[in-house]
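Standup notes
- DV: blocked on the single-chain target, sequence here:
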Amino acid sequence: MNPFVASRSQFPALQLKDASGRPAIYFDGPGGTQAPQSVIAAMNQHLVHRLSNTHGAFATSRATDETIHQARAAMADFLNAPAPENIAFGANMTSLTFHVSRSIGRDLKPGDEIILTRLDHDANVAPWLALEEKGVKIKFLDFHPEDCTLAYEELENLLSAKTKLVAVGYASNAVGT
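- DV (later): unblocked, structure below
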């Protein structure tokens, strides 16, 4: 069997049909990705047996803490991070980036610069644009429209002594990379 077909069978939502009876196709889902059955089962187990506040003295709280620790350890291993404590989870990319931008923004001064790309999702643009209110200058690295790759050859010209952050995504859901 084709590995893509086999993989697709693991995702219950991909078994849905459209009004014409054809399989559903999801081209872009930044607000929520289709989950495979194994993830649905794990989430169900957590909701039924472990759902509680963290750092409590009771069994479900300790189980929740252990789930979070295991998830951080797995992600640290996957990303080759130095330690699980270097991994943070949040509600979504937008809220996490707003938290990071506000934290970094406390140390930025008027005239400091941030470089973004025009291919990035708004979750990596809006949080940094909010810093313009305190005088931070936002610059954009363009892209090549013919193949939607970043114009890295322009990056050196954008960098300056005032550049404090280059927030460039590796992939763009706008173009399917």
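- Follow-up: The longest helix spans residues 59-79.
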